[in-house]
Amino acid sequence: MNIRGRNKVTPEFNFASMTDIVFLLLIFFMIASTLVTTNAIDIILPTASGKTENKKTTAVSIKADLTYYIDQKRVGESVLESQLISAMATQESPTIVLRAEKSVPVENVVKVMDIANRNKFKVILAVKPN
Length: 130
Prior knowledge:
Nucleotidyltransferase, domain 5; 32% helix; five-stranded mixed beta sheet; two-stranded parallel ribbon; alpha/beta; 130 residues; 19% strand
């Protein structure tokens, strides 16, 4: 008389579902990585040696057609100071990264630096490394 049970537990593991999950994650990260964009406006920076530290900063960009941007938001020249003050109000040590194209006149760059000086903001001039 054979009294063994019919339900045998096999010690094998099926990896088919695990590979499906790995491929789905791979596809997700490949698609997500192509959607990542830099948080900057495309401008041609002057070249110099040096390095900019990556801290919590606000970027002010000046394009060749003399349009001003705070981070990626376009602002007018007349409201630049008030917009900068409101953007920097929450920062402990307010720092501006000034990104100006090569062809921007010095007067426009100095205007942003003057605003920063009046309001005690630190200014870092962004350049393209050599």
